[in-house]
Amino acid sequence: MNNRLAPSILSGDFTNLGEQIRAIEAGGATDLHFDVMDGVFVRNISFGIPVLKSLRPFTELFMDVHLMIMDPVRYVDKFAEAGADMITFHLEACESERECLTTIKEIRNAGKKVGMAINPEVDAELIYPFVEPVDMILVMGVHPGFGGQGIVDGTFDKIKKIRDFMNMQKLERDLQVDGGIKLDNVDQALEAGANVIVAGSAIFKGDVKANAPAFIDHLNKASSYQRELYMESLIDMQEELYISAGPCLIVGGGEIDMEWARGFAASIPSAMTIACDSGIMFFYKNGKQCPDLFVSDDDSADPEMIEYYADKEQTLKHALPVQKDMTDSEEALKIALQAGCDPIYMIGMTGGRLDHTLGNIQMLHKAADAGVHAYLIDAHSRALLVSAAEDAAYEGGAGIGQGAGRVIRLHKDKAYGQYFSLFALGGPVSALTITGAAYPLKNATLTGADSIGVSNQFVEDEVVISFEKGYLLIVESRD
């Protein structure tokens, strides 16, 4: 989970706000906190839609709009249109739980991330029912309305309670603290579990160019510790799943031939199963099966699917943060590698987008570096990346024959198709030798610019491929 700094422009100098925003952006801030006050919910009036609209073209910072207003649902569409990336509203501003859920739904319908805030006098437990459907919880460290206040006693304890609840429920949500945060107490906020730090006076009063990097330094130092805690939570998750080394099936949200995919999934019944975001639809359409794990950032999964699996105890939920440092597919692969799964089969990853294709190749690279056999598969092709440095033997049943890491045996009766292509990744592949194929090679050098390895074909029952250096991408094709 990323630690992020969200300077609050409530404390900014509006005669020089443009320069200050450029300074905090250069200093490492990723978010901009935009406080909206109506004079009713809090005893102050700040700024609203016109100011937000004027700032939006000026910066690409993530615009975190904090509504300290009554009846916030009335203004969701207007703030969304003005340029908000996230809209946060207060639990106390709604008259009922139903009104809170309606506001959440309206923000989602507007295509924005959702945050929910509580004031100092509100017990942490009252926010628990709303942690799952939102992207972020905001804990106020002061009574809202004015900047420069000291933090209220008990704020860090409240943050810890909420983070502990999130961890217990395996909900990876952003946890923001706003009010009273300075350089001398930001570490306490981070240690308690906050990962989004709002700072106003501590940033904008004095040297903005120096203040923002100083906060970022604290956030970066805390990240390594939080990463250790995160990995511990993954280990706990694996223990709950009773995972042992074995196959894993990861289903993404790309194009899937359902008839083929059903048959393929049935061929590995003992595999650990992971759904990535909209990949959950495969399991839903395939008899409403429950995968072992559902990794999601809620950016493409059907809300109906999310609702259906929300209360299915057989499926653990693993939510990605609002601003994630990896895709849901990468997260799923990381979990499978951490669990010791081998081989790993990834379906629903292919499609027409070039960025997805390159991202998939990167995932194969991670698996190869870990000495694990990870396959990208669809109804037509199967891809595996092999490292020359790898010592592990290959499973003949997966279409790859027995042998050392630099010798690969493709058996015709177990191959994915009659054609295969070879590509060099990350540098040249040297001493490449191919026997048993229509286009044999001997001690060739394959580079990323070569086509000599494309669309080769079996002429014998076994094709033997050997090489001495580099990463070799093997793509078997049926047509």
If you had to describe this structure to a student in words, what would you say it looks like?
This protein folds into 2 domains: 4-237, Aldolase class I (TIM Barrel), CATH 3.20.20.70; 248-477, Thiamin pyrophosphokinase, catalytic domain (Rossmann fold, 3-Layer(aba) Sandwich), CATH 3.40.50. It contains 13 helices and 21 strands. It has helices at 17-26, 49-55, 76-82, 97-109, 155-168, 186-192, 201-204, 208-241, 258-266, 280-285, 303-310, 328-338, 354-369; strands at 4-7, 31-37, 62-68, 86-90, 113-118, 136-140, 174-178, 196-199, 248-251, 272-276, 293-296, 316-319, 344-347, 374-377, 381-387, 407-411, 419-435, 441-446, 456-457, 462-466, 469-477. Strands 9, 10, 11, 12, 13, 14, 15, 16, 17, 18, 19, 20 and 21 form a 13-stranded mixed beta sheet that branches. An 8-stranded parallel beta sheet has the order 1-8-7-6-5-4-3-2. α1 crosses α8 (208-241) and α6 (186-192) runs parallel beside α8. The longest helix has 34 residues, at 208-241. It is elongated, with a radius of gyration of 26 Å. The model is unreliable at 391-405 (pLDDT under 50).
